[in-house]
Design a protein that fits this description.
By secondary structure, the chain is of the alpha/beta class. The chain contains 6 helices and 7 strands, in the order αααβββαβαβββα.
């Protein structure tokens, strides 16, 4: 009887400890990063990655007369960079563009960030990265990016988001090829450091 009481007491103490940890994580905002870290296990399976093989195959078979692989991208997406300068996708015309809509409060966004950072280190000289923060306060996103040591450029929308990129689901990723066509739309997280995705980006130049 005494053993059962001691066991029950120990169980309640464990629940109490977990509850305190949960409260601290939510109070400090660290729960997002903890959940994001846990979700990286899903990314490792590769099951959530965009299917880029078909697009890569189409591009490789049309080297002489490139065929548009998607609709024309809306290049009138106005953005504010970390220095407060207003820019737009127009200024990146002619380059392959990787657009990612994210927020610091979004665990799947946090989960895929290391893979995007790795991708940026690999192809950043050839691909324009447009990491669009949907945080209410852009300073929060800036502080997060600096704390994590990510070097990809981040932006905030300078006004409304064009219908082509407007979504209720984040993270959402869009890839525009060098001809200005929307080559890929992917909803949800993915491992963008995957070799197939890198090959896909290289095929869009």
């Amino acid at each position: 009887m005494k053993k059962d009481k001691n066991k029950e007491k120990k169980t309640w103490i464990q629940y109490g400890v977990f509850a305190v940890i949960a409260v601290i994580l939510y109070a400090t905002g660290l729960h997002t990063e903890v959940i994001g870290f846990a979700q990286r296990g899903l990314l490792a399976t590769g099951l959530m990655n965009p299917d880029v093989e078909e697009v890569t195959h189409m591009k490789s078979n049309n080297t002489t007369s490139p065929t548009p692989i998607g609709p024309k991208a809306d290049m009138n997406f106005k953005l504010i960079d970390v220095n407060g300068k207003v820019t737009s996708l127009q200024e990146l015309k002619g380059k392959v563009i990787f657009i990612n809509l994210w927020a610091t409060w979004c665990p799947p966004c946090i989960a895929e960030m290391p893979s995007i950072d790795s991708l940026h280190k690999t192809v950043g000289d050839d691909v324009a990265f447009v990491m669009v923060s949907l945080d209410r306060d852009f300073e929060t996103a800036k502080a997060f990016n600096e704390r994590k040591g990510y070097n990809f450029p981040i932006y905030a929308p300078a006004g409304g988001i064009p219908a082509m990129y407007n979504t209720n689901s984040i993270p959402s990723t869009y890839v525009i090829d060098a001809l200005g066509n929307l080559a890929l739309t992917h909803r949800g997280m993915a491992d963008y450091s995957d070799s197939k995705f890198i090959e896909f980006l290289n095929s869009l130049k």
